[in-house]
Write a structure and sequence with these properties.
2 copies of one chain form a homodimer.
Chain A lengths: L6 E6 L4 H13 L1 E2 L2 E10 L12 E6 L7 H6 L5 E4 L5 H6 L1 H22 L6 E7 L22 H18 L4 E7 L1 E2 L12 H11 L4 E3 L6 E5 L1 H13 L10 E3 L3 E4 H12 L1 H4 L2 E3 L3 H8 L5
Parallel strand pairs in A: 1-3, 1-5, 3-4, 5-6, 6-7, 7-11, 8-10, 9-13
Antiparallel strand pairs in A: 2-3, 10-12
Helix pairs in contact in A: 1-7, 4-5, 6-8
């Protein structure tokens, strides 16, 4: 097969918070796996907010991965590495069952099927952004690599199913997959999204911007966070590791920082003072409390 | 909602070995969950080999669960209990990726979706025949309830995905599911099927019928078996247990008898003599050996 020294990369969910940061990091590095990046395609259902300035070609594709024919077009260029970040987030997948399964299950399956159908030795590295939502209470205090998957949300169910597909398609030689289970990303920049975990970022971000933030869970809620920068590093590392050592267990749980909401609030107080902390309004939401209570804490 | 004292039951895969035995047992018992059986529908892609004689109405439906509209028709009568046994067996799902995903993933999802779409409080007990193929080596000597799912076949992957769907649809209140992970059923009566585990039965059944049987794995291969009668009892029990005590963990691994192939052969020798054992021909098959090596042993 023709070997091109230039690395071609596809990012689904390329307009999302992690996707944009991943693109910016690739633009800055200019290389991946010791090969110069030649082309980067950013696919998402919306246009990325700004252009990515890079020494290589960057294309944006506005399309829905689960729609007929879309994944085939994205894969037609045979990218060497696919970062599959596109997802219907947890709150939205819980609110709309059909939309969640369509985006998170059908979209992922369509992507993997398009890769398989290319055939002729094509076997890209696929880095899949999974989530610690694949785990569900009751859980041990420390989550090991052999923790069984008992998701308590439709989002977590869909991520767990996608992990199973990734492993089966890898085992059969259609792709070379690695699933990275990301902790909650905190502090997320930008505007709130519909993730049930969104408040973990809101209670820091909005008060620092002089805006009110709603805290829907008790202060003693403990959770597990990684920064946006760490998330990008996890994904880039997954793109270059030797998957031979993983054998059939290709789903990796990433480390994070475990804190209570009270500890987050006290950290904000130390940095920004009582006035800023006063912008956090406690407004219990039983649905969010229940979703978060089912997630791992550290 | 209108309450009918007569129990209506749907069995998918109703022409299969377990499906037929389940139907015969229901005909004999005449009751399920202390309610008289009023109607039994047996659905399968082929006609059952013989009629089921019962004091209640028995219908057979020849249809493909994954085909457009079929699951909706099967569910239109709102059965109180659905035994979902239909499956593309392990060897066939490994040989034909598309057929396996279509039958085992799309078919199951269509069934669950049809149940969900009825709505209006309809929430049948769904007993799903899963498999110990959801587990994959390396495994501990004893499989606990918290064993993580690492299937090493497409069949096991599809069963694991169906389990996740069953749990999510149960959690959301669309159905009341229980997944029963059956060990390999041995001795299976009838003709060989395309299950990779088929030889465990063939090496007993064919020689007893005076026919040659092929043994594709080494004699020290250890595996885990349940009789057809036990399988039926597991499924019937799952139809009546209080699922409240299961909480979110609705997938149950069934007990079995753990033996090596050599022990099976010696048991056959004790019962039927050297001449019958001589009909077992050793013909190593690396594909089957590898599939079986990935399964739990006890």
């Amino acid at each position: 097969m023709f070997y091109c020294p230039w690395m071609r990369i596809l990012v689904t969910g390329g307009a999302g918070m992690v996707g944009v940061r991943l693109a910016e990091r690739l633009a800055r590095d200019g290389v991946l796996a010791d090969r110069p990046v030649g082309h980067l395609a950013l696919a998402d259902i919306v246009e990325p907010s700004g252009p990515v300035l890079a020494d290589f070609a960057v294309d944006t594709v506005v399309a829905d991965l689960a729609a007929e024919g879309v994944s085939g077009e994205l894969i037609a260029d045979r990218p060497d590495v696919v970062f599959h970040l596109a997802a219907v987030v947890s709150g939205a997948a819980e609110a709309d069952l059909e939309e969640g399964y369509r985006g998170n299950l059908d979209g992922t399956r369509a992507l993997f099927e398009s890769i398989r159908r290319i055939g002729r030795g094509y076997r890209p590295r696929v880095v899949f952004a999974s989530s610690i939502a694949v785990f569900g209470a009751p859980l041990p205090e420390v989550i090991g690599d052999d923790q069984c998957l008992t998701p308590l949300t439709s989002y977590g169910t869909q991520k767990a199913i996608a992990e199973l597909l990734l492993c089966d398609y890898s085992r059969r030689g259609f792709l070379d997959g690695v699933a990275i289970r990301l902790p909650t990303i905190c502090v997320r920049p930008g505007r709130p999204n519909r993730a049930a975990s969104g408040f973990f970022s809101s209670i820091i971000r909005e008060p620092l911007n002089g805006e009110e933030a709603v805290l829907p869970v008790p202060d003693d809620t403990r959770h597990w966070h990684a920064s946006p920068r760490s998330a990008v590093s996890f994904l880039l590392r997954a793109a270059v590791i030797d998957t031979g050592v993983l054998e059939s267990r290709r789903c990796l749980t990433m480390p994070g920082v475990s804190v209570t909401v009270a500890e987050q609030v006290e950290a904000l107080r130390r940095v920004a003072g009582d006035g800023v902390v006063g912008l956090i309004r406690r407004e219990p939401d039983e649905t969010i409390r229940r979703i978060v209570a089912g997630w791992p804490r550290l």
